[in-house]
Amino acid sequence: MNEQLSLTPTGVKAPHGARELEISWADGHKNLYPHAILRGFCPCAACQGHSGEITYQTGGDLELRSLEPVGNYALGLTWGDTHSSGIYSFRYLRKLGTLLEEHGAEGLVAMGRLGRV
């Protein structure tokens, strides 16, 4: 797999009122991200501290209010409770998508921890 293509989104869909974010990648792959997983595994320092792992955090508003590109490497998500400090790198999102395919959302929540990407 060409890593550059696997980390380049070609489409992002986050319909108002939906509970999943969809990303299409330049290598033809597509991932669906439940909002509960994105919010629960928010990579920001306020949610995670400065440890080497990302742990699942419960709570928080799951309404995705907006998303914006951050440079050419990430998405910034703003949630219904105005939490917006998480920067989701494309590398992190691709890894999270792979883990979702392998374990499902419930499996990821049960794992409770992800290594930093």
Rg, nearest Å: 13 Å
Task: Work out the number of β strands.
Answer: 8
Q: Structural class, judged by helices and strands?
A: alpha+beta
Helices and strands, in N-to-C order? Answer: HEEEHHEEEEHE
Q: DSSP helix count? A: 4
- Helical proportion, percent range: 25-40%
What is the mean pLDDT? 91
Low-confidence stretches: none
Note the overall shape.
Answer: globular
Biggest sheet, in brief? 3 strands, antiparallel
The fraction of residues assigned to DSSP E strands is 25-35%
Order of strands side by side in the largest beta sheet? Answer: 1-2-3
* Amino- and carboxy-terminal Cα gap: 18 Å
Description:
The protein is an alpha+beta fold. The chain has helices at residues 3-6, 35-40, 45-48, 90-111; strands at 9-13, 20-25, 30-34, 53-55, 64-70, 74-79, 87-89, 113-115. Helices cover 31% and strands 32% of the residues. A hairpin with a 4-residue loop joins strand 2 (20-25) and strand 3. The longest helix has 22 residues, at 90-111. The strands form three sheets. Strands 1-2-3 form a three-stranded antiparallel beta sheet. It contains four helices and eight strands, in the order H-E-E-E-H-H-E-E-E-E-H-E.
A few lines on this structure:
With 117 residues, this protein is an alpha+beta fold.
